[in-house]
From TrEMBL:
It comes from the Bacteria. Residues 188-432 form the PhoD-like phosphatase metallophosphatase domain. It comes from Lunatimonas lonarensis. This is Putative alkaline phosphatase D. It holds the Pfam family PhoD.
């Protein structure tokens, strides 16, 4: 991109026409360059909405970021209601987006990534960011080495010759699947901007996860809520505002400086409650726009369902629950699906090929439940009973496979009464977001129930050569609230 911009300069100025040495007249040249295409050279761009490192393999990784014109997000000026979710009071959805609480103005520029390790350096080309993508960039990294910790520099500038802004991070590539290595991951779900529980930093859960120093973090969907107030994201502009405001919380930015994130989508960060591909628009925001926005904000290339290995003892599947599903209100029966044929075939093939000791299926929505009787959106509901029954049966036939899910606003561990399949619901990011289940309604399938926020950490390791997996539910402060451990 830099080369391209410089070519434009050469063409406009016409080096040859001056008839003097370039090197003898550098100050003049510099002034002309400045006048020509760096009219606002004082303008800088910032990583105000952070960056995300994801999809880390032994040799590749993805970096996502957005360039921003303002160094800090807009201050929060609204009071909040004193009840669940903490909706803002008197929020004017029609005010300019640039003035909204938590808002960040993005802007054009160039970004590159430099990786440093003990054995060398990898430098990406400059990538230009455009308004059509809300000034975001997705930069694939290749040629990495297995089991190496990389120091990352993201470098941004508004113009070709403008001043640079640098952001730093670290990440470590996985070791080969034949090696038994300890793994620690964290997972959480359901984060609404206004449910923050730390006014300066955003969500305590993010700081608590960072203190555990996990190898990676899996966010199981509802990263933002288009259909919750402050504003209701009924068009592209307001929807983009929500992603920017969320990613600008310091607690979130700080986690991603040292922990890669893997993302799943769910209904509220795609369009609206219980969305499927045949859903009507949300205000002026269409399903297709919602889909475009999700990929705009997530460091991923290719299929939204994927699997990855971490050492001899762990393989993870991240499944897609929105893009391939039947309309929720279609009659239940064979052929009614959430996963879709292609994904089911992929899942069966990859899970049957796997020789990992423990297998974790991450799904945005529950497979076991229990869920409320009136819900019509997931495998634990009557409307998807046929595929749900098949899936629970199939998953329970695979040794040491566990389901981990988002979507539900309470923490739980449940065991399917018919198949014995175990499911771990992480609970929402914040206590202010906890609702939807009566804390006293502990059903026979519940091994644990807590209608509060926080996260789930999962550890895989060996003691005297014996692999174990440990699931620890935690409150927003990181304190354990429940633990389950299984040995292979
Ligand atoms: Fe949710």
């Amino acid at each position: 991109m830099v080369k391209f911009a410089r070519r434009i300069f050469v063409k406009k100025v016409g080096w040859g026409a001056f008839g003097f040495s370039f090197f003898a007249h550098q100050p003049l040249i510099a002034r002309m360059r400045k006048a020509l295409f760096s009219a606002n050279e004082d303008e800088r761009v910032f990583f105000t909405t952070g960056f995300k490192i994801s999809e880390v393999t032994e040799s590749t990784a993805m970096v996502w970021t957005r360039l921003c014109r303002q160094e800090h997000p807009n201050p929060i000026t609204h009071e909040r209601e004193d009840k669940v979710f903490r909706h803002p009071v008197d929020f004017d959805d029609d005010q300019p987006i640039s003035q909204m609480d938590g808002g960040v103005e993005p802007g054009p520029g160039f970004v590159r990534v430099k990786l440093y390790s003990d054995t060398g350096k990898i430098v990406s080309p400059w990538v230009q960011v455009y308004q059509r993508d809300d000034f975001t960039a997705r930069i694939p990294l290749e040629g990495l080495q297995s089991g190496v910790t990389y120091r990352v520099e993201l470098i941004a500038k508004a113009t070709v010759d403008g001043p640079t802004t640098v952001e730093k991070a670290t990440f470590t590539t996985p070791t080969p699947p034949q090696e038994a290595v300890p793994v620690l991951l964290t997972t959480s779900t359901c984060q609404y901007f206004w449910s923050f529980d730390e006014p300066e930093r955003g969500f305590r859960t993010y700081d608590s996860m960072r203190r555990l120093e996990p190898d990676f973090f899996i966010q199981t969907g509802d990263y933002v809520y288009y259909d919750k107030p402050g504003p209701l994201a009924k068009d592209l502009g307001r929807a983009r505002h929500k992603w920017r405001a969320m990613d600008a919380w310091p607690a979130i930015r700080d986690l991603y400086r040292q922990v890669p994130i893997y993302m799943l989508k769910d209904d509220h960060d795609l369009l609206k409650d219980d969305v499927h591909p045949a859903s009507t628009p949300y205000g002026n925001l269409s399903y297709q726009e919602g889909l475009k926005l999700w990929y705009e904000n997530v460091p991923i290339i290719g299929k939204p369902y994927r699997t990855f290995r971490r050492g001899k003892d762990l393989q993870i599947w991240l499944v897609e629950g929105r893009e391939y599903r039947s309309p929720n209100d279609a009659p239940d029966g064979p052929g009614k699906t959430i996963w879709g044929k292609e994904q089911i075939a992929w899942f069966k093939q990859t899970v049957e090929e796997s020789d990992a000791t423990f297998k974790l299926l991450f799904t945005a929505t529950p497979v076991v439940g229990p869920d409320r009787e009136n819900k019509k959106d997931n495998h634990a509901n009557k409307v998807y009973e046929t595929e749900g029954n098949w899936l629970r049966q199939y998953l329970s036939s695979i040794d040491h496979l566990y389901v981990v899910n988002g979507d539900r606003h309470w923490q739980y561990v449940s065991k399917d009464e018919h198949t014995g399949l175990l499911e771990f619901g992480s609970g929402p990011i914040s206590d202010y977001h906890a609702q939807g289940w009566d804390p006293d309604d502990k059903r026979p399938e519940h091994r644990f129930l807590r209608v509060k926020g926080g996260f789930l950490s999962i550890q895989v390791d060996r003691v005297e050569g014996k692999p174990f997996i440990r699931f620890t539910h935690r409150d927003v402060g990181g304190n354990p609230t429940h633990e389950e451990q299984f040995t292979a």
